[in-house]
TrEMBL record:
InterPro entries: C-N_Hydrolase (IPR003010), C-N_Hydrolase_sf (IPR036526), Nit1/2_C-N_Hydrolase (IPR045254), UPF0012_CS (IPR001110). It holds the Pfam family CN_hydrolase. This is CN hydrolase domain-containing protein. Signal peptide: none annotated. Belongs to the carbon-nitrogen hydrolase superfamily. NIT1/NIT2 family. It comes from Onychostoma macrolepis. Transmembrane segments: none annotated. GO terms for molecular function: hydrolase activity, acting on carbon-nitrogen (but not peptide) bonds, in linear amides. Residues 38-257 form the CN hydrolase domain. Keywords: Hydrolase.
Amino acid sequence: MRLFAALIPSRPSLAAALCALRSRAERAHTRMSSSSSLPVAAVCQMTATPDKEANFSAGSRLVEQAKEGGACMVFLPEGLDYIGSSRDETLHLSESLEVTLSAATLTWPGELVSVYRKAHLFDVELTSKGVSLKESAFTIPGPRLVPPVQTPIGKVGLGVCYDLRFPELSSALQRHGAEILTYPSAFTVATGTAHWEVLLRARAIETQCFVLAAAQVGAHHAKRTSFGHALAVDPWGEVIGDCGGSDAGLTLVQIDLQRLRDVRRDMPVQRHRRDDRFYCSLD
């Protein structure tokens, strides 16, 4: 996910939308300190193409919609800036330092405070499903996890798309304080239909975290279509927001950290977990 944070200076419309959202977040933080109102997150989906300008315009519109809906934080999908139709086009469209897929989060003065570079690359040949993709042909995997980041909605742990299939990642983020996990994604229709919701709900249940997963949807070009269904899942594993599988848009969800604390109190899974030696005893 080559997120917009590093591109703000050259994208005035997106920068303006983010600044407005930042102001709303600051006001929301002030209100929350003196009231019981819950912060609102916007989980978005869009259809990126090889046309960067069109993609940034679409992203700007989603940020504006999020602001109008009362959101203090917005989650945009993997491939926000472009999805190329071939390796050569992808490399042509890439810019300096864009050879890795990364998730990024902003601090409210508008500075980039954390970058996570996707660790697990989608190199898959599902011939019976018509899926063939080799991310390692144009992507360098990230070397490490990054600590969860404090945000207006809670502490957010960062993952990207295929990372969703590796529970060790989400467990590590939870142990380091994550309350919300995010997986900006571009799942194929075949893998999304079979696995998307069940994986997101599993990660939420295992870690007792909120899971917010922005998504790509629809046909990007003649060779690739994404599943959509950007989802929000609560710490009990209930789906609390779904953008559907056809159109760009967003879902607005309240992040109730008391709900998270109640779930963890009533079912103290982390206290019941054995030490690492137990789980390695078969090695």
